[in-house]
Design brief:
With 450 residues, this protein is an alpha+beta fold. The chain has three domains: 1-77, no CATH class; 87-194, Beta-Lactamase (2-Layer Sandwich), CATH 3.30.450.90; 197-449, P-loop containing nucleotide triphosphate hydrolases (Rossmann fold), CATH 3.40.50.300. Helices cover 35% and strands 23% of the residues. It contains 14 helices and 20 strands. Helix 3 (41-56) packs antiparallel against helix 4 (65-77) and helix 9 runs parallel beside helix 10 (314-323). It is elongated and about 85 Å long. The model has no long low-confidence stretch (mean pLDDT 88).
């Protein structure tokens, strides 16, 4: 039995060597395979080159060639064993049709204490288990992670066990290994915005994330009126998705400047849009969000977007909001109370102790409106949901539209309540800035929204 086992290992080793040698030859003959972002026609051309080379190779058996093709394409794209989540189609439970890989938004690899690492993915706001047949063990997964990190110039080593890096296509990769993850390396990949076009607002309405009336109100008042908007929610509540959908309503000629810690916010068709991101080299932040926000203040944008408020960048973000009429950002907070606590903490990160009696005034400088999002977990769909739209008014907050929790608890139906109109003073200012003030925004004609 030992002899047979060794013989099988020898065959597998020979096959590995053949595939590796063929991959090396292709990289030497076509160096652009390693430098270009392989999307669209470039990906199709790469497939043709690799497939031709594999099929013409006389050392590989016929039944080995499909696997060789997948392995080599995984190497040249940088996707490795996870390539199926980036190109082609995927079979997703509960969805009858084959799902295009572009609909996969996130891939997670989790170590297992007693077997191969397990792979999960997100599609349409839900997470699914893909299997444990992608990496045979933690050692292979670690080598995969180290290759990605080395390619980004940020080695994954014992002294630096946490890395935030990118694939060639812009996909963001968070890696945790060694002592920081005792069971083995763990990976989270968030797809590049270049691979995923923003969902328009009518698609979010179709998905029942919000009622059509709320979508029209956001467009007619908040966007056409160039309001300052904060979009808040807890993890995976759809904040960036919602902000992109709102931004698509802006005129395409407007000068938009976007600042982020990593490149996630892409607006196709906006020719006067500038994306700015943090720069990190050898684990040291060279250009941070504070510096980027200061650049925005000097660049005269029509619309300023800060990808997310997390920490001390709130100080320059305040300067942006105070000096421009149109500002938009996201952040982690589920309620006004959560937001007030977060704002104090962000200032503390910047070395500023914000007086409590100045807190609401600070929020009113940042925002005209605050939109809260959530994600229900009662149903299988786990739908992302508009929780409320709040107007920031002198001395407090005014709920315009809110999700009806009582109706959902009693019947399972998704319903929203149109609780208050926007204040007369705010409507007048928004009208001055271009908002479309319809009669239903001045008077509540339909209380319940579906």
């Amino acid at each position: 039995m030992m002899i047979v086992g060794e013989w099988i290992k020898d065959i597998q080793r020979d096959r590995e060597n053949i595939i590796e040698e063929l991959s090396k030859e292709l990289r030497q003959k076509h160096p652009w395979l390693l430098t270009k972002k392989l999307v669209g026609r470039d990906y199709e051309k790469a497939c043709e080159i690799v497939r031709t080379a594999v099929l013409s190779n006389k050392e590989l058996l016929f039944e080995e060639k499909d696997e060789a093709f997948r392995r080599i394409m995984g190497q040249v794209t940088g996707y490795g064993p996870l390539q199926e989540f980036f190109v082609g189609t995927v079979r997703v439970p509960d969805i009858s049709r084959p799902v295009d890989a572009s609909e996969i938004t996130e891939i997670m690899v989790v170590p297992a204490p007693d077997g191969p690492p397990k792979v999960f993915y997100s599609c349409h706001g839900r997470r699914y288990y893909a299997g444990d047949n992608y990496f045979p063990d933690n050692k292979v997964l670690l080598e995969y992670c180290q290759k990605i990190c080395d390619d980004s110039g940020r080695p994954l080593v014992v002294d630096s066990p946490i890395q935030d890096v990118w694939l060639k296509d812009g996909t963001r990769v968070a890696v945790v290994a060694f002592g920081a993850s005792p069971l083995g390396p763990a990976v989270t990949m968030r797809k590049s915005p270049l691979l995923m076009l923003p969902l328009p607002m009518d698609e979010l309405v179709k998905k029942n994330m919000l009622p059509e009336f709320a979508a029209r109100l956001c467009r007619d008042l908040l966007i056409k009126g160039y309001a300052k908007i904060g979009i808040f929610g807890r993890t995976d509540s759809g904040k960036t998705t919602f902000m992109k959908a709102l931004a698509l309503f802006y005129p395409r000629y407007k000068r938009i400047i976007i600042t982020e810690t990593s490149y996630e916010f892409f607006l196709p068709g906006f020719d006067n849009c500038l994306n700015l991101v943090e720069v990190i080299s050898a684990g040291v932040v060279i250009v941070d969000m504070t510096m980027l926000c200061n650049v925005v203040n000097r660049s005269n944008p029509d619309i300023s977007i800060v990808g997310e408020l997390r920490s001390k960048e709130i100080v320059p973000a305040l300067q942006i909001a105070a000096s421009t009429s149109c500002f938009m950002t996201t952040g982690h907070a589920g309620t006004i109370r959560d937001l007030r606590t977060r704002i104090v903490g962000m200032h503390r990160d910047a070395g500023i102790e914000l007086p409590r009696d100045s807190l609401d005034e600070t929020i009113s400088t940042l925002f005209d409106f605050i939109i809260f999002l959530g994600k229900e977990t009662r149903t299988k769909e786990e739908k992302r949901t508009l929780m409320s739209i709040e107007e920031v008014v002198p001395g407090g907050y005014r709920t315009i539209i809110r999700f009806d929790f009582d109706e959902f608890a009693a019947t399972g139906k998704r319903r929203w309540i149109y609780e208050n109109t926007v204040s007369k003073e705010k409507l007048s200012r928004l009208a001055f800035q271009g908002a479309e003030i319809l009669p239903e925004y001045k008077e509540i004609k339909q209380k319940y929204l579906y």
